[in-house]
Amino acid sequence: MTPQKYAYIDLMRACAILLVLMVHVAQLAGPQSSIPLHVFAFGQMGVQLFYVASALTLCLSMSARKNDSHYVKSFYVRRLFRIAPLYYLGIATYGVT
What we know:
Blueprint: H1 7-29, H2 34-41, H3 46-63, H4 71-96
Helix pairs in contact: 1-2, 1-3
């Protein structure tokens, strides 16, 4: 089953990335007046927007397989095998160094 791509989710992720970049650039440049400071302060919402986009993607991924038997269990097994290997590799790498 090929997952369906939604352009609006990619747009949300792009906006989130730009908002986060905006905050980091403002921290480096140090705005000289209060107007850019207030505008760049909105960039801190980029992380929250990225979480919302990720949650929406997970919900759509799970609901797309509602017709499968044991779709909840298979959803969590897929999440586990997507996250756990890199997590444990990171722990092992950190433990060695």
